[in-house]
Design goal:
five-stranded antiparallel beta sheet, six-stranded mixed beta sheet, mainly beta, 51% strand
Length: 130
């Protein structure tokens, strides 16, 4: 069974955010399928790197579709290209809570784990002077 590890990501660390994913996630985007409590908090990050580690399979790949929490619902961002082992994608999260939805898996891996790390910190310079 896939395990989601909600919480904040550390600035200089790589964080495992989902483990033992064996199949693509539901295409029905709602709080029942993607509980807000299971989201990853990217506060302080403009963007994150996301990548996967696979167990088994033949040249497995995965596409990730980030779901960003906006108000009382999820908003889909563009899905990544097919990511192979050791290949990361950069996703602009703008400090929001994110669920890294597994859109598709190829190559028949037994399962995969999803990781993320800060790509670029979110910097606020205050109001602009005119």
């Amino acid at each position: 069974m896939a395990i989601t590890k909600p919480g904040a990501i550390a600035e200089a660390a790589t964080t495992e955010v989902r483990t033992d994913v064996a199949a693509a996630d539901s295409t029905t985007i709602n709080d029942g399928n993607f509980p807000p409590a299971n989201a990853v908090d990217t506060a302080g990050s403009k963007s994150v790197h996301v990548f996967c580690r696979f167990n088994g399979g033949t040249a497995p790949t995965v596409t990730i579709e980030p779901l960003i929490r906006c108000g009382n619902g999820w908003v889909k961002l563009a899905q990544t290209a097919a990511l192979a082992e050791g290949v990361a994608a950069t996703i602009n999260t703008f400090g929001r809570k994110v669920f890294f939805r597994v859109h598709a898996i190829t190559g028949a891996p037994t399962n995969l784990d999803v990781f993320c790390s800060v790509a670029e910190p979110l910097v606020y310079d205050g109001p602009k002077q005119g």
